[in-house]
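My current task is to audit a protein record that another person submitted. Alongside the sequence sits a line of tokens, each denoting a local backbone shape. Please read both lines and tell me whether the tokens look consistent with the sequence. Do not assume that whoever made the record got everything right. Thanks in advance; the entry in question is below.
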Amino acid sequence: MSSYHLMMSQTDTPDTIKEIESTLLETVGDMWESTVSRLPYLGAALVVLVITFLVVALAKRIARGLFDRRDVRGSLQDLIVRFLSIGLWFVGLLIVGVIVFPGLDPAKALGGLGLLSVAVGLAFQDIFENFFAGILLLWKFPFEKGDFIECEDIVGRVEDVQIRMSLIRKTTGELVVVPNSFLFKNPVNVMTNRDRRRLHLTAGVGYSENVDEAVSVITSALEQCETVDQEKPIEIYPSGFGASSIDIDVAWWTSSMPGERRRSTGEVVTVIKAALDDAGIEIPFPYRTLTFSEPLKTMATTGNDS
């Protein structure tokens, strides 16, 4: 009985192998025939992708040209061009999908895309938050490329405003990649919103000096500074009684660029010091006066003491 089954299994083995080979060959053949039959569709889809790429590039160039003629600000140009590119690529990819999968119609594709967008939105909530924050930043024009901004502890020059993040080059040289939601939620000080910015410093003169004369000397000194904008008012007023001096508030206008502000402050401090010295007006250092309730006793010493 066992020998009979062994003979049967040995007889069936070649037939089984032949059946497997035949099935594999039929499957591969069907796949090959299906692929060959769909080659025209794949070629058409490739042509649509190339056409879409060329159309997007041409649309960008035309849009930039129209914006330049109408003096549209740069951030709004970037936003519109990006949306235009996304829209054209969406249409092109939708056409490609219909060509490659003939059973797929635009209505089904849009419905599936809607469900997919909901799932992706829930999974990548932070990314979409930054995305919409970037759109609002570009649309509302709080700052442009090249502006110097200050947000929390970040101070630097805006190198690029992208849809999801902004690139800020700090004044110390580091590049900071900042999520747009951070800039949208926190106060941002745009230091270069205007070409000129007013600076302040406090100068001090001794209590024994003539304050009006000191103000006149400081005013004349600032009128000789190269970094001070002489077309805008120079404001110099006594501002209070300091611990050791009469405080004088000095305000002037200069360039809003960080480097120019430091340069102007250095020049103003230098010329004020030189002018007050030349006029013989004291710039006091901190004084301390000690008062005792009773006179201090002193002891005389002689040179023989050791």
